[in-house]
């Protein structure tokens, strides 16, 4: 229910004290309100004229309004703090995202990350608003009321005091029973609720198989099963609310009956009796409110936990070990026995990788799927950190990892599908150089072979592209990425991760012509399984099951019958047409 | 008000179900009303009880009835509430079953067997969410509002029995709570909703951009820009939320204020009326206390009303979906075996676009022939497949099988066509069930034979649960090549004479690709195959290659002839084999 880290939020303590004071005043108002109303009623009951109730009625009005104004005051005074805290949390989350980079997204999933930063933080906000105020309400109001009742009539006070833990106990027992039953049903329940989206997503396949019409009946019957399962769970889940409701309402009835008998016996006067009766529902109100918001608080608690977990993820340290770097013809990069193991597996994904590259070499990385090509590229790009520090060096300086800021400022990464931002084409091309002049942007686009396409666009470089805007084909997306690289001539390290894997052969051939000039005078790492690229490489790394099994110039490798020749034979195993 | 009318003008999603399950609905509303009436009655009765008791009547018998009633109402309230909640949830879930079926049918008619993109997947999720929204519309808006109004009516009539002027005053005071304030909420929230949606969608776009393009952001080192992009929407949303909250708090206070006036009215009126005798005066406490439990449902009325703008969009979206359904062509049946597929001078453009996608395209495919279609993306390959399958109809020209237009053969489609696409969908059930979708009457042995034919037998049998292994959502358990083989097994069971291959190897590495293509053409050797491919691996499997460029065929022939006669084809082929030294 309550995450302990909640109390560690900076600046929360004085706010809690303030809420406590407001709640206490509110409890006093509740008592005054009940008392004043009872006085007025008793006066009338004694057949006194209406004029006698003017004072108590005014007191009643004032205390009633005060009570509800205090609710507004509680919210208003606490809200700025919550807003500031969650706003800061959002910023911290973004900072964390930037610091941890794509590895965090890979772990949490893009959708989850976006949901967490938007809806997740909203839920945290609701949670913070609810939890502190409700807990204070539950911790203060009933006891002030009880104290006042005890002051008038100890017997009813004792009854109310005893019934309170009984209610809580029943709530917990029934709640636990519901939870264990719900847990047991959860797997099936989850499956049923996913079934619908699952079916919709697979509709194309169902249509291909000619089952789509018939499946409508299935959708209905699965949904009905879901209803029955849900009702079974709800029936139990609601019993806990029922127990609460039952005991509180019945308690009010019992108190009324008690008071009735005491009045008949002359043990109590009407005024205190009526006051107690008026106060009894308010005594139970906080716990009922708390139970009503139980689900909102539970969701909020989980959201808070998720956010705090991300915020507490350790960041990659020592990102500025490498002080200065401008990659040029004499620079050197060395991997010496580098291994990489992902957090959740035992076997290393990359093991004992060792190679030397220098200057403006063009390095091809080949291997079957799952051989570790992409992981190696990510390691070189600094998006992943090797198991042990000190096995990577640039210009002779040993480094813990390649997540060095200055190294990353020297490199450009072009994946299979470059991400296009929801922005104008101009902003997309000048992403690494936001202040580039128009002429240079146009020149870069021209080199990347985009000029003809831009001429066709309605507003040229100012056309919006990216998600939800104008569609851009895979080939054009690659060309935009190329234009980015052409524009930023200072970045001399190019990392390609299968840039043409999903393009058709004609598009690829045309793209290649524009891409080759970019490779000149740069250090290039090019992971691919399109073999013709090897002809443009002057060094090749052959990967197999996370190991670097062979390396050398293509000519050297072709000479002996090693993994390279074998892989080439398997990959290029087209049957001769001539 | 106007917007509400507009939303329901052509509604087929909300009103019909209210009618269909009307008795259950009446029960839900009755139980909801009884819950709060019991609570009010409990306070009313208790007020009377202690007032009467305070007169110290000689015999217990005088307060016996109120004592029994106090207990009865005390028990009745939670029981009514419990049954109300169960009944309403049951009712809503029952409707949801209908909704799901209806949504499925609406989507099904329009769905295409070709290229279900990610984006359509997202739209489907949105629609599925809409159904949840409509579920909440009932539970959080419709029920509380109707119950609130019924209570309102009940109070007016109840007071009206004693005094019409007071009843009229209550009409005004409580009317503020159940009519004016809720309408105000809708107006305020409706206006805010539009702005909020704008900011949220821009924030969402930026955030998705930042998360998806994170690699580029990190490499660019533009930390400040990265942070600034979120700052403005965060601030704007916070400002909007603040307004929203302030409005809610003060609205709550407003409701309490009018409620206070109503309580005072009852107190003063009863004080002025029940003065004839001491016995009469016992009713004063009853009337003074009775309203207090009613404030809770009254608060829910405004809350429910303010959520209306959210639900409205959902209702409009699903209604729009089911209102523009395509027309159906009369169907005929093909009895003879497929001998020829013809595309006759087909020109095609989408109705809402000027671009002509196919220009006077003709193609004849004989039974058993295997043909490959190539061409850059966007040149109409997928459109041609959609035309072949009958998902689209040509603007000019015709697509026929044995002379019958395919649009008239849609009922027979699964017996005519088998489709293997880029990302075949595996359902969240066992391997056995997934493959059997190809032919529901297939025996276990036939399924196993199909698995063996696609060379997956060793893999499946090595799994701990064998053929009963759950595929897991979206088939994440199996690799790309394995998933293609699983769906190939499905196609084998389906046993249709024409097979459409829509770039089935695009996401596979060359070795897996070659192995898969070898298997595909081996097991489907006696079928007619139309294969869209992005490059030339495995091209020797086909009898005919066609290049589609800008909506027309510009190169065609057997692969061997093309290699011999067409330098462009030779260049592409050699690029694919990695042979050439220069491009």
Automatic annotation (TrEMBL), chain A:
It is found in: Cell membrane. Its main location: membrane. GO terms for biological process: cysteine transport. Pfam families: ABC_membrane, ABC_tran. InterPro entries: AAA+_ATPase, ABC1_TM_dom, ABC1_TM_sf, ABC_transporter-like_ATP-bd, ABC_transporter-like_CS, ABC_transptr_CydD, P-loop_NTPase, Type_1_exporter. GO terms for molecular function: ABC-type transporter activity; ATP binding; ATP hydrolysis activity; ATPase-coupled lipid transmembrane transporter activity. The keyword Magnesium does not apply. This is Cytochrome bd biosynthesis ABC transporter ATP-binding and permease components cydD.
TrEMBL record, chain B:
InterPro entries: AAA+_ATPase, ABC1_TM_dom, ABC1_TM_sf, ABC_CydC/D, ABC_transporter-like_ATP-bd, ABC_transporter-like_CS, P-loop_NTPase, Type_1_exporter. Coiled coil: none annotated. The keyword Membrane applies. GO terms for molecular function: ABC-type transporter activity; ATP binding; ATP hydrolysis activity; ATPase-coupled lipid transmembrane transporter activity. SUPFAM superfamilies: ABC transporter transmembrane region (SSF90123), P-loop containing nucleoside triphosphate hydrolases (SSF52540). The chain crosses the membrane at residues 21-41, 61-80, 142-162, 168-188, 249-269. Pfam families: ABC_membrane, ABC_tran. The keyword Transcription does not apply. It is found in: Cell membrane. Keywords: ATP-binding, Membrane, Nucleotide-binding, Transmembrane, Transmembrane helix. It is a multi-pass membrane protein. One of its GO terms (cellular component) is plasma membrane. One of its GO terms (biological process) is glutathione transmembrane transport. NCBIfam families: CydC. This is Cytochrome bd biosynthesis ABC transporter ATP-binding and permease components cydC.
